[in-house]
Amino acid sequence: MPTAVKTAKEALVVTKDELEELRDWEKKFAEAKKKQADAEREVKFRRLQLAEKVLGIKTEDELKALPPEKVQKLYAQRLTAGDWKLERGAPVFAFKKTSHGCYPPWAKLFAAELGETAAARIKNETETSYSYSVEVAVPA
User: How crowded is residue 137: how many other Cβ atoms within 10 Å of its Cβ?
Assistant: First the structure.
């Protein structure tokens, strides 16, 4: 049987050091996410630029719609036809499928099937979720 009983509530202390460390990591995380988004945007631009030359497509949606067999066929047909060629010394390349799946525009399909008001009602009745970062002020 315990002999001592806590009578006063002990407050947990949030330290200056842990807040400053969290602030620094929040900043690093935000910068890394921005760099990632910038890199993804640049890769997509360059990938589409190559696909325009080699495959003759004009949009990212067109590229996404092409199955791997069709990509290979267009690649070979346009190369044979002289629509594009590799610069001397340029490395060979290929378009490689990394993933696939069906990604329908659910909100539009739902509205088309059940109507705009049903879609709006579901949206309004769905609980909002939130995510947070922690901003810690930099001392002056």
Answer: 8
Helices (H) and strands (E) in the chain, counts: 5, 0
Phi, psi at 59, each rounded to 5°: -135, 160
What are the tens digits of pLDDT across the range 120-132?
A: 888 888 887 777 7
- Which residues contact residue 49 at a Cβ distance below 8 angstroms, ignoring those fewer than 6 apart? none
Could you give the maximum distance between any two Cα atoms of the chain, in Å?
92
Contacts of 26 (CB under 8 A, 6+ apart): 133, 134, 135, 136
**Which tokens hold the place of 137?**
């002020």
What is the rounded distance in angstroms from the CA atom of residue 7 to the CA atom of residue 69?
Answer: 74
- What confidence category does residue 42 fall into, taking pLDDT thresholds of 50, 70 and 90? very high
Beta strands in 12-69 (DSSP E): none
